[in-house]
Amino acid sequence: MQIEYIAEDVTVDQFVLPRFKNWNVVSGPNLSSSTSQIGNVIKQQIAYSVMLQPTTSGTFLIPGATALINNKPQRSNGVTIVVKNVDHLQGSQPPSQSSPQTSILDQLPFQDQVPANQYLKKGEKAIDKIRNNIVVRLEVNKHTSYVGEPILATYKLCTRLRSKSKVVKQPQFSGCTVIELTGEQQDAHIEKINGIEYNVFVIRKVQLFPLEAGKLELPATSVENKVTFYDASHQNYRDLYYGAPSLPVEEQLVTLQNKTDVIDVKPLPPLPTVGTSEFSNAVGNFNVSLAIGEDALTTNSTNHLLFTIQGVGNLQQVKAPSIQWPKGVESFDATEQMEDEKTTFPVRTRKTFSIPFVVGKKGDYTLPAVQFTYFDPNANRYVTKTTSGLLLRVAQGSKTFTGNVKKTGTNDNLGFDERLYILLGAGLLAIVIGLVWFNRRPKMPLQRAASKVQLPVQQQPQPVEIKRPESSEYLFKIRELQPETDSSSFYKSLCKNLHAYLNSKFGIDAAQLPYFIQQHPESAGELQLLKELLDDCSLGMYTPVYSMEEAMQHRLLAIEVLCRLEK
């Protein structure tokens, strides 16, 4: 009996098997790993398997194994096994505890209820009939490929007998990325193999991307077959035609496996040093495009640049492209989305990078073309595709500095120099107004005039010291934040500025925010986002749960929420 300890999407170290009382270890532990993708979800699996044989009958507990899971000691669950004192038929194996209960051959298109091959004539052996009429096959479309080049592997059960068949062990792939395929004769059908018709069921069809050069071994799958035979030793073929025996005389339970196969994986050829941009790690045949996600671009709002790659091949290792942003445009970390068309081989794939950016001033900005270099295994060469450049026409956003300052605050698109000039100009204007007033004042006694002269002097510095509203000031501070290696300090700064913004803008603290949201439904959406941001900051300050990319996304969201609240 085979026992497997499986871990998914984690790092496993220091794996230790338990002590198997009442069991003999036949083989193991054997390590296998696999990576699979279903839609946009990528899963990694590590499995430790061991083959056990019971020493006596009874009910026994298979203990859990221990290991360091993501550097934390953990123990797996145990499994209770009932061992019965029952002899198995010749050539049979005990059924797997984890195998499915339904037969994969329930819908195979047999023409006869009982095929003639299941009648045993004199001298015929059931086990020989099974081996000659049931086969598990592994078919591949090529035996030589490059790293990252797609390979089609199809596991099939081919039979000329009616049986109850169950897959008791799926192949465990390692050293490659796996995409499960659908369609294309996945259902039962008839095929000719060496001129003989077989009923065929596709057990598994996958597209594989080798991750490194060398020998890629494709493992075996195991199928358990339960076949019933009938005694025809005293009947000729004419008797079988008119009156076939109805009582079974022998039943065989046999587990069959396919032969393993090996793919010779070659490394990619050297990248040319002339005329080729940076290699993207993509292998296949692709087209690229560049577009803007919004219908209109404005200042003080988050816009998105979309870089799309589509075609056939491997885009698993492709990262966001390097964009030469024009001066005055601030960009943020990209997000990506994968879409696969898995009904055909090779799989058609589409990968889109969405890159947020903010523009400080209105005007026209030129975004240069983006190059994308991939390796085409069919042409055996590197290919560079270039997108068209883009002209960004950016209009002024709804928020302006010259509006109601107390209500909207300073325009976010004004730089430090512009704000300094405005403050100095306002101060100079106030001084001029004060001097004009002083010169036109009524003639008064010297002592009283002196007192009046002091009045504009007291008011005069006031315009010079104009400050942008405190709430807007915290928006500028958040813009200047940059996540560092220590994300805790970043989240502490972000949380501090958000708390200060709440107090400055609304005169409340974070504890009063839920009640404040109920009282102001017109801003409930933005305030709720702000509350969730504060919760994320609290978590990020004390636990390293967020990556640098997620920290940048939190910063971007904070800027967008505060901009909307300022309007």
Please give a quick description of this structure:
The protein is α+β, with helices and mostly antiparallel strands and 567 residues long. The chain folds into 5 domains: 86 residues, no CATH class; 169 residues, Immunoglobulin-like, CATH 2.60.40; 123 residues, Immunoglobulin-like; 60 residues; 97 residues, no CATH class.
What does this structure look like?
With 567 residues, the protein is an alpha+beta fold. It folds into five domains: 86 residues, no CATH class; 169 residues, Immunoglobulin-like (Sandwich), CATH 2.60.40; 123 residues, Immunoglobulin-like (Sandwich); 60 residues; 97 residues, no CATH class. Helix content is 24%, strand content 38%. The chain is built from eleven helices and 30 strands. Strands 1, 3, 4, 10, 12, 14, 15 and 16 form an eight-stranded mixed sheet that branches. Strands 21, 23, 24, 25, 26, 28 and 29 form a seven-stranded mixed sheet that branches. Helix 10 packs antiparallel against helix 11. About 11% of the residues have low confidence.
| The top level CATH class name of the largest domain | Mainly Beta
**CATH A-level architecture of the largest domain:** Sandwich
Oligomer: single chain
- Number of distinct beta strands: 30
Largest sheet: 8 strands, mixed
Count of individual helical segments: 11
> Strand share of the residues?
35-45%
CATH level 3 topology of the largest domain? Immunoglobulin-like
Overall structural domain count: 5
Structural class: alpha+beta
Distance between the termini: 68 Å
Alpha carbon gyration radius: 37 Å
Helix content: 10-25%
Low-confidence stretches: 87-102, 105-112, 400-416, 444-461, 463-468
Shape: elongated
Mean pLDDT: 77
